[in-house]
Specification:
By secondary structure, the chain is α+β, with helices and mostly antiparallel strands. The strands form five sheets. Strands 1-11-6-13-5-4-2-3 form an eight-stranded antiparallel sheet, with helices on one face. The protein has a three-stranded antiparallel sheet with strand order 10-7-12, with no helix packed on it. Helix 5 crosses helix 7. The chain is globular, with a radius of gyration of 25 Å. The chain binds succinic acid (SIN) and cobalt (II) ion (CO).
């Protein structure tokens, strides 16, 4: 397992001030050695699972035509691949592989709930996914092998793209920087920067991508939650009935009334906080409900017994937690669910919402939680939801 991926002298404050969401940065590994937490064969194995999102992208010799195929794949698909010029991409590997989710521990200078997933690519010589831009920040951690990255112009929704392969590739790519990266090097890219990375020999890349809901998703999500609080008899009314100037005209005060209704409905920080907490902790792909349905805890006693018998409580790889504090109370968000909690559970919520999942939950935090009925009940609820595991 890779203990740390950022060099010791990496200055997090300077990074946040000068680069985060602003401009690209190449972070050289220096003396750090990077050990891949997964092999290409294991990655290919994951790409054969139906619950896992994966893609195979092949490019022609001229590097001007890309072909996309979506998984799940079979062993035969891999056997019939050429020697070079393809990439296998597997989404959210942190959700399935603990050692991959452990890579996230080093990125704790950015809120854990901002992380979307760790996507892993395995490319053979000259393999690449074409010149493109993404709408989110990404740290591209180079694993085994090497890649040549070209970085280009700033793009947005008006930038012409060619979608005929299903890949939204840039019609025009204007590179202005070029770097070859080696194991442990990290390339940070803010949203909208054109990039194109070509493998030189076989290469693995770990993309730590960040969750950034669009304004459309935010507004529709908050409004959907607000709608759930409404009932059918709340309807449009004529607030100040008077003779219309013309019966076809919609008067300004009708619009003002609607505006105030929409405003009133969304002027609700609690509703917005809950929507956001649930949205940012929702798993990228649904967890297997069968798996945790079979392992339910029915009481605090049974949790205590298992711990006394030596079981250790871990977070499930990819389980997502966050908490918020308001009006002298707390709320825990776990995989898209919201749990009210007392202020005294703060250290438990903080332990749960630390990024990365390899470490067991600290024994002293669990011990304190078990002496407190509310905290212990919270642990059981979150366990029964499938976010924790006893091993
Ligand atoms: C890659 O891993 O080669 C592609 C990642 C990206 O460009 O977003
Ligand atoms: Co990209």
């Amino acid at each position: 397992m890779t203990e740390t991926v950022l060099p010791e002298d990496f200055d997090r404050q300077t990074f946040l001030r000068d680069y985060w969401q602003k401009k690209p940065l190449l972070i050289r590994a220096g003396s750090l050695s990077f050990i891949d937490p997964i092999t290409p064969e294991e990655l290919a194995g994951l790409a054969c699972e139906s619950a896992v999102e994966s893609r195979l992208i092949q490019v022609n010799e001229q590097q001007n035509d890309w072909q996309l195929r979506c998984g799940p794949f079979s062993e035969q698909d891999f056997i019939s691949l050429p020697e070079s010029r393809y990439s296998l991409l597997v989404q959210a590997v942190d959700q399935w592989v603990d050692d991959v989710s452990a890579l996230l521990q080093d990125f704790d200078f950015i809120p854990a709930w901002r992380v979307d997933d760790v996507m892993i690519s395995y490319a053979t010589d000259q393999g690449n996914v074409g010149p493109h831009f993404d709408y989110y920040d990404v740290f591209l951690i180079q694993g085994q092998g090497q890649k040549r990255w070209q970085i280009g112009q700033r793009c947005d929704h008006t930038t012409p793209v060619d979608d005929h392969s299903g890949l939204k590739l840039l019609r025009e790519f204007k590179p202005d920087q070029e770097w070859t990266v080696y194991p442990g090097d990290i390339l940070y890219l803010p949203p909208g920067i054109a990039h194109y990375g070509v493998a030189e020999g076989n290469a693995m890349t770990y993309s730590v991508g960040f969750r950034a809901p669009s304004w459309a998703e935010i507004v529709s999500g908050v409004i959907d939650d607000a709608i759930d609080t409404l009932h059918e008899d709340q309807r449009y009314t004529d607030a100040h009935p008077r003779l219309p100037m013309h019966s076809g005209e919609i008067p300004a005060d009708a619009v003002t009334q609607l505006q105030s209704l929409v405003h009133q409905l969304t002027d609700n920080p609690e509703l917005i906080r809950r929507w956001f907490g649930k949205t940012m902790t929702r798993p990228k792909y649904p967890l297997d409900p069968q798996e945790h349905a079979e392992h339910q805890l029915d009481s605090i006693r049974s949790l205590k017994t298992q711990l006394e018998q030596g079981a250790i409580l871990y977070k499930v790889p990819g389980a997502r937690f966050a908490y918020s504090c308001h009006d002298n109370s707390l709320e825990l968000f776990a995989d898209g669910e919201c749990y009210p909690a007392g202020l005294h559970t703060l250290s438990l919520l903080q332990a749960l919402s630390k990024p990365g999942h390899i470490e067991p939950l600290p024994a002293e935090v669990i011990a304190a939680a078990l002496t407190d009925e509310d905290a212990a009940q919270l642990l059981i609820s979150v366990y029964n939801q499938g976010c924790l595991v006893l091993d």
